[in-house]
Design goal:
This is ABC transporter ATP-binding protein. Belongs to the ABC transporter superfamily. There is one protein chain. By secondary structure, the protein is of the alpha/beta class. The chain has a single domain, classed as Rossmann fold. The strands form two sheets. It has a six-stranded mixed β-sheet with strand order 6-7-8-3-9-10, sandwiched between helices. Strands 2-1-4-5 form a four-stranded antiparallel β-sheet, with helices on one face. The protein starts with a strand and ends with a helix.
């Protein structure tokens, strides 16, 4: 289980996260929503150690992570698909995928077949450079790379942003499959209300670096929900 308690973080002298509390339960999909610029990506970067936790605690499976560097958090079982994908454009698809195994604790160096089955288009593109792929294909590549190490927690930062509807559906299908397997917890940053309501077990809404609303998709007051997401 992931638990954040009174977490503060930001950039330089700017404080973005202001006492954030959040939980991601085992095997569940937890969604984080909010308008642009409210701190969602800052939270994800703080969870991965790319930004320093200035105050509060970050516990993953009972272990305090706040002082750990990103590589050690990945080794602890956290996978990350950042906003913008951040694949290596000069490396081939296969090379990008194999990099995901570097964080694996098992020592296995063969890419897992069940992950490739979730993203079948990638197997036919092994020799192509990552930079030659479409945006949607790059997103699938980043997603598959993150799953290669068999993480217990997967952080997805707006995985459907700017990609075609058919690939959005592919990503939804993969998230629902992972959810059904019950072996991985997912924290998903997403803007689409329909996507979130179809996938989420629990939803948090952020505004100005604090959580302003939370609940299950069925329990949330939709008028308040839409108000906090309106531009």
């Amino acid at each position: 289980m992931l638990r954040l308690q009174n977490v503060e973080s930001g950039y330089g002298e700017s404080r973005v996260l202001r006492g954030v509390n959040l939980e991601v339960l085992p095997g569940q999909v937890t969604c984080l929503m909010g308008r642009n610029g409210v701190g969602k990506t800052t939270l994800m970067k703080t969870l991965m150690g790319l930004l320093r936790t200035r105050a509060g605690s970050v516990h993953w499976n009972g272990r305090e992570l706040a002082s750990l560097e990103p590589a050690k958090r990945a080794k602890a079982g956290i996978g990350y698909v950042p906003q913008g994908r951040e694949i290596f454009p000069q490396l081939t698809v296969k090379e990008n995928l194999l990099l995901g195994l570097e964080m694996s604790m098992s020592g296995v160096r063969t890419f897992p077949e069940d992950v490739l089955e979730m993203f079948p288009v990638l197997a036919s593109m092994y020799g192509r450079q990552g930079g030659d792929l479409s945006g949607g294909q790059q997103q699938q590549l980043a997603f598959a790379r993150a799953l290669a190490s068999r993480p217990g927690l997967l952080l997805l930062d707006e995985p459907t942003e700017g990609i075609q509807p058919s690939i959005v559906e592919d990503i939804r299908r993969v998230i629902l499959k992972l959810k059904a397997q019950g072996t991985i917890s997912i924290l998903l940053v997403e803007q689409s209300i329909d996507f979130v309501r179809s996938a989420a077990d629990y939803i948090y809404v952020m505004d100005k670096g604090v959580m302003t609303l939370q609940g299950t998709p069925h329990d949330l007051d939709m008028s308040q929900f839409e108000y906090h997401l309106s531009v």
